[in-house]
Amino acid sequence: ELRTNLKQANLSYEGAVQRYNRDELDIIYNVTSAFFAVYRATRELKIAEDDVEQQEEIFNLAKQKYEAGLIPEVEALQMQVDYAESQSAYVEAEEALQRLSDSFKQLIGLQLSDEIGVMTDFEYEHVEVDLNQAIDYAQEHRSEIRLSEIGVELSKLRVKEVDAFRDFQGTLSAF
Fold it and tell me: In angstroms, rounded to a whole number, what is the distance separating the alpha carbons of residues 87 and 1?
């Protein structure tokens, strides 16, 4: 019984360690993913800002050309519509950045009133990966597989315990 309890305790401990490591990797993934979402939204806001500036210049030029009688009113109105659409896209990008920033702040535990910014200086190192070796390593160290194996072993131990309790036991004392 003591050996069985020790084995159950060791398996439960190993399962807890596996789940802890898996949860830690999930947290790292979620924070990294949220960071890159904020970074992408920052870049999209800059693109929308540039588009507004460009559309404003085009609209002002079209307005001057229309007033000079060089282009029809339809073209001038179309430029005005394009300019308004670019302004709308800018506001949408601004709202998306704010929403993603708030979500990121909540994820990492900052106050919503705190200001954050994205500063990036990416350096990429080229790494050669042997695909077969990577697959073998992943299969050996896959936490879900080991957790399933631990579950099976714990179930077998529980079956043995139940069988042991069903055995007929008795104590005879005589004087």
Answer: 74
Find how far residue 9's CA is from the centre of its chain.
33
Q: Which two tokens stand for residue 135?
A: 């697959």
From residue 21, how far is each of 15, 31, 143 by CA, in Å?
10, 16, 8
Interatomic CA distance for residues 71 and 80, integer angstroms? 13
Distance CA 62, CA 93 (A): 26
Both tokens of residue 3?
């050996």
pLDDT digits (tens, 9 = 90+) for 133-171: 999 988 888 888 888 989 999 998 888 877 777 766 667
Tokens of 93: 């990008």
For residue 137, give the amino acid letter: Y
Q: Which of 83, 82, 100 is nearest to 45 (CA)?
A: 100
> So what's the pLDDT on residue 93?
97
Cβ contact 14:142 at 8 Å: no
